[in-house]
Amino acid sequence: MNFKNWKNVASLLSAAALALALAGCGNATTNEGTGTSQQPAQEQSQGQAQTDLKTQYPLTVTDATGESFTFEKAPAKIVSVSPAETESLFALGLDNQIVGVSDYDDYPEAATTKAKMGGISKPNEESIIAAEADIVFTGISMSEDAVKKLRELGITIFKTDPKSIDDVMNNIETFGKITDHQEKAQEIITQMKQDVTDVTEAVKAVKPEEKKKVYIEFSPGWTVGKGEFMDELITVAGGTNIASDKEGWYEINEENVIASNPDVILYANDVIDENSKTLDQIIKARSGWDQITAVKNDAVIGLDANLLSRPGPRVTQGLKEVAKAIYPDLFQ
């Protein structure tokens, strides 16, 4: 991903942070799931019990905006305008049902062959309507106001807004129920839970006083505080996020980072600015940052941007990469 794309992502996160609603991630969870979101995203009336991992229709679900949807059968045509949701839907084996994705959807490879539906914060309304999808999925990059406007055009759009790894797993469980792909959903969730267990077991011996201080920068000048899944990745990996004194996604104060003196700096490894500088070069060139422990010890570590930023089925792979970067000796 180049700097142009990351500037786009950063602007989306900026608007979302200011609105206290980071548009695009998806926080639809199920009553019977393991998520921690405050409002359940799955509601079933009598007669809608799940039997042998087969969905019993009609099925009623509620998304992160509180909107309810009733499905008489599994949707035959699906559009996703969120990279994280697109990854989840493909992981469930819905390639044949997916008729459109956003311009930024690049994983898996099959997603690049689908019809493009525009941006992730403001998709192409005409293209979506023409696709005649039974359901459109979106996530953290789209505000609730944007979702509302699309609904006023008659578009059936299901929004998620995950704040944790559990929320991501619950969203996948919900997608599995909607599409009658519950068995595959459970396979994915089982693997994700195993990834979390692998990490927590590896770092459980780290004493509180030995926890490393971590700073993460996913776009030039942007980091994440508490209450978001990226902060949780650091915490579950046994680190302490130096930016957790604030909530959500926000622009950094360089002096505060210096004062916090992180032991490890993580960054998105494919960000390149207009001058062909990588994000680690930008970070190391800042005044006074050469005195930060992470910089002095060459613990400025690049990670796959998509694993860091997409709350989809690969988020626990991102967790493992974060943990390895913070405590390499524990992951030989």
Structure characterization notes:
The chain is α/β, with parallel strands linked by helices and 332 residues long. Helix content is 36%, strand content 13%. The strands form four sheets. Strands 4-3-5-6 form a four-stranded parallel sheet, sandwiched between helices. Strands 9-7-11-12 form a four-stranded parallel sheet. The protein has a two-stranded antiparallel ribbon with strand order 1-2. α2 links the parallel β3 (78-80) and β4 (98-101). α5 packs antiparallel against α6 and α6 packs parallel to α12 (315-326). It is globular and about 60 Å long. The model is unreliable at 1-51 (pLDDT under 50).
Which strand order does the major sheet show?
4-3-5-6
The amount of beta strand, in percent, is 5-15%
Shape: globular
Residue share in helix: 25-40%
Q: What is the string of SSEs from the N terminus onward?
A: HEEEHEHEHEHHEEHEEHEHHEHH
Structural class assignment: alpha/beta
How many helix segments?
Answer: 12
Number of strands: 12
End-to-end distance: 29 Å
Q: What is the CA-based Rg, rounded? A: 20 Å
Instruction: List segments where confidence is low: pLDDT < 50 over at least 5 consecutive residues.
Output: 1-51
Largest sheet: 4 strands, parallel
Averaged pLDDT:
87
